């Protein structure tokens, strides 16, 4: 059987050992007497899973006790609405650095809720191939918070810890596609969220990390109960029926990350994988990786031959060699190789071998 590799941007590749464990525990056994997808979200078994998952995430990200951690439904897109509803309550104004599609979508969602959104800077005119800079005269006090996306899944530019915007105000981050892939200082942020379907597990669960004292300052009159973070914090992520299976799988992935050596080890491996691919692309006369080097993503590597029709044909050809989901997002074309934590170096080597062969044939 051919070895295959999944380069999908999300849902992304999961560790093989996690998939094996899920298969083993999917059916009822003598301990649970039912499948993991049948257990109640009110059961002691699930309450233990949630508590363990929170403790492991706190350990991996060094999340202090003054931050709440909740596992929610609705994906990152629901967070585009929950955040302004909970935190854009005083000035009713949000500042945004537009570094890609999902930053722009967050701004649009907030505007539809009646919030004022100021795009401080945007790299859209240059196809998001670099990062927008925070203006020197930015007045943080005029806004409820500054919203950024740490890793732009579609366009491949990243705010790493060393190039985060420096603000004296509140900072909110969408970490959906690089949470646990590289280290961030949680205390540099006041709220963090991440859809689970890239580095945390399967689709269906979203993590939110919320500074408690900031939340306590808010007047949430008119905000419905499901959209209030405090309700989910108070009920330990079980305010309503939780995404049981997705949180269970996330808990297993966290076990795997810990066993691999934690975020520091993941970062070292991800650097090695990304650098190997970027090194090949940079020396190639056939492919181009357009993102500015200081802003390049470790998890979503975008590149092109410069001919979008040819790129599409090559991505299709890659499937015959066991390399799946290499086509770039439909809005930009080209290629996108997603190298999430569970992606092995062997996948990168197989991809480079294929790309070299195509280059030799077509260049």
From TrEMBL:
Family classification: Belongs to the class-V pyridoxal-phosphate-dependent aminotransferase family. SerC subfamily.
EC number: 2.6.1.52
Compartmental location: Cytoplasm
HAMAP family documented for this protein: SerC_aminotrans_5
SUPFAM superfamilies reported in the protein's UniProt record: PLP-dependent transferases
Residues where pyridoxal 5'-phosphate binds: 76-77, 102, 153, 174, 197, 240-241
GO terms under biological process: L-serine biosynthetic process
Reactions the enzyme catalyzes: O-phospho-L-serine + 2-oxoglutarate = 3-phosphooxypyruvate + L-glutamate; 4-(phosphooxy)-L-threonine + 2-oxoglutarate = (R)-3-hydroxy-2-oxo-4-phosphooxybutanoate + L-glutamate
Pathway(s) where this gene product acts: Amino-acid biosynthesis; L-serine biosynthesis; L-serine from 3-phospho-D-glycerate: step 2/3
Record-listed L-glutamate binding positions: 42
Organism superkingdom: Bacteria
The protein's required cofactors: pyridoxal 5'-phosphate
Residue numbers bearing the N6-(pyridoxal phosphate)lysine modification: 198
Name of the gene: serC
Cofactor stoichiometry and binding remark: Binds 1 pyridoxal phosphate per subunit.
Protein name, UniProt field: Phosphoserine aminotransferase
Keyword Oxidoreductase recorded: no
Quaternary assembly: Homodimer.
GO cellular component: cytoplasm
């Amino acid at each position: 059987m051919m070895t295959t590799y999944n380069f999908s941007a999300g849902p992304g590749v999961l560790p093989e050992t996690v998939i094996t464990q899920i298969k083993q525990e999917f059916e009822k056994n003598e301990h649970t007497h039912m499948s993991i997808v049948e257990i109640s979200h009110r059961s002691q078994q699930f309450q233990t899973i949630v508590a363990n998952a929170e403790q492991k995430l706190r350990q991996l990200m060094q999340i202090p006790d003054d931050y709440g951690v909740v596992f929610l439904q609705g994906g990152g897109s629901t967070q585009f609405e929950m955040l302004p509803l909970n935190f854009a309550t005083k000035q009713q104004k949000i500042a945004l650095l537009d570094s890609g599609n999902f930053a722009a979508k967050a701004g649009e969602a907030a505007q539809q809720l009646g919030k004022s959104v100021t795009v401080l800077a945007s790299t859209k005119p240059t196809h998001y191939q670099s990062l927008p800079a925070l203006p020197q005269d930015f007045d943080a006090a005029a806004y409820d918070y500054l919203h950024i996306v740490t890793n732009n899944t579609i366009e491949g530019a990243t705010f790493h810890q060393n190039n985060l915007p420096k603000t004296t105000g509140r900072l909110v981050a969408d970490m959906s596609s690089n949470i646990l892939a590289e280290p961030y200082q949680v205390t540099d942020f006041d709220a963090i969220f991440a859809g689970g379907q890239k580095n945390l597990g399967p689709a269906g669960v979203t993590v939110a990390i919320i500074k408690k004292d900031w939340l306590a300052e808010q007047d949430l009159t008119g905000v419905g109960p499901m959209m209030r973070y405090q309700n989910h914090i108070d009920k330990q992520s079980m305010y309503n029926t939780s995404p049981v299976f997705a949180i269970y799988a996330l808990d297993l992935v966290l076990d795997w990350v810990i066993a691999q050596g934690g975020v520091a080890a993941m970062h070292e491996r991800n650097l090695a994988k990304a650098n190997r691919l970027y090194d090949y692309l940079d020396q190639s006369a056939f492919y181009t990786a357009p993102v500015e080097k200081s802003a390049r993503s470790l998890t979503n590597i975008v590149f092109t031959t410069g001919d979008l029709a040819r790129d599409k044909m090559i991505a299709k050809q890659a499937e015959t060699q066991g390399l799946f989901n290499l086509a770039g997002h439909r809005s930009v074309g080209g290629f996108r190789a997603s190298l999430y934590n569970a992606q092995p170096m062997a996948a990168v080597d197989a991809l480079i071998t294929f790309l070299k062969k195509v280059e030799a044939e077509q260049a």
